[in-house]
Design goal:
heterodimer; A: 248 residues; mainly alpha; 77% helix; globular; B: 64 residues; 3 helices; elongated
Chain lengths: 248, 64
């Protein structure tokens, strides 16, 4: 059970964050030069890889298991509750839906105003924008995957989930940017919020001396409670919604 | 710097504060109840309730 939930959580979280990074890289590449966009993205990927190589072993070797569970739980709760809060607001119609395609179009329009350097000269503006976009999304991916992988038995499903997400997002990027507009991002991000919050409560409680009834199967009833509570919030907020939806 | 803060803590201070308070209460309850007290069996549900209360608090501005 924990294996499947870890895999789903890692795959969805990585996939959605990388989709946002892909939107920025595509916007830079198609508006300016693809080569410079890829150089910026590759630089950020390298920094992220170094960070992942440093963070994982450091956490596992320096922190004992009980405090580590609390730290992991707190990190997952920080990300999970924020995704859940945004998901609830979006599904209640009080915030614009999550849309990487819209971000792609907006980024592209903004970049069209910046002048391109002469042919042969490096496009530093394009490189920096691609670097920053991939770096910020990449750090979030690393923190989530490291937190999910740090639990005993969590490494394999977290890495498999992350790997599946990488392949899927690269495939979307290679095929075309059009499918970006067809992905139900709002609902997927809401699901990630539920999964990360569930793991966060589970790990943090374990680290604070709790033994969950039914062991790992507790993940199921925690997820059910989080899902039920958030659905009640969505229904309640939808009733309070003003006539005009509030923007992001 | 602002992007990094938003990345780690999110858009509102309510959630990080609620998580910190929830974990602090849970830590105190764990210490007070002992290794096999009521916290050992039921503490997870208390923490879950605290976390969901924090989420509800973070959603309150949307109701105004």
């Amino acid at each position: 059970m924990a294996f499947v939930l870890t895999l789903i959580g890692a795959a969805l979280a990585c996939g959605l964050e990388m989709l946002e990074a892909l939107a920025i890289v595509l916007a830079v590449g198609l508006t300016r030069r693809m080569r410079d966009a890829l150089i910026g993205a590759a630089g950020a990927a390298l920094v992220c890889a170094l960070l992942a190589l440093a963070l994982g072993p450091l956490l596992l070797s320096r922190v004992s298991i009980e405090p580590l569970r609390v730290v992991i739980g707190a990190a997952l709760l920080l990300f999970g509750l924020e995704w859940l809060r945004k998901g609830i607001l979006r599904l209640a119609g009080m915030r614009s839906p999550s849309d990487s395609f819209k971000e792609f179009v907006e980024e592209r329009e903004a970049l069209e105003e910046v002048q391109l350097p002469a042919p042969g000269e490096p496009d530093w503006a394009g490189r920096v924008i691609a670097f920053k976009g991939v770096l910020l999304e990449g750090i979030e991916v690393i923190l989530i995957v490291t937190a999910l992988a740090a639990r005993p038995g969590g490494l394999a499903p977290a890495l498999v989930g992350g790997g599946v997400a990488i392949v899927a997002v690269i495939a979307i990027g290679v095929v075309a940017h059009a499918p970006l507009s067809r992905i139900p991002e709002t609902h997927l991000k809401y699901v990630v919020g539920v999964v990360l919050t569930t793991f966060g409560v589970f790990f943090a409680a374990e680290g604070l001396g709790v033994e969950w009834p039914l062991s790992d199967a507790a993940l199921l009833y925690i997820a059910a409670v989080v899902l039920g509570f958030s659905q009640l919030e969505i229904a309640s907020l939808a009733r309070h919604r003003p006539r005009e939806a509030v923007g992001a | 710097m602002r992007a990094a803060r938003k990345l780690i803590l999110g858009e509102t201070w309510t959630l990080p504060a609620a998580i910190a308070v929830s974990l602090a209460i849970a830590g105190v309850a764990d210490a007070v109840s002992g290794s096999h007290g009521w916290w050992h069996d039921a503490g997870g549900f208390v923490l879950l309730a605290l976390v969901l209360a924090g989420l509800a608090l973070a959603l309150r501005p949307a109701r105004r």
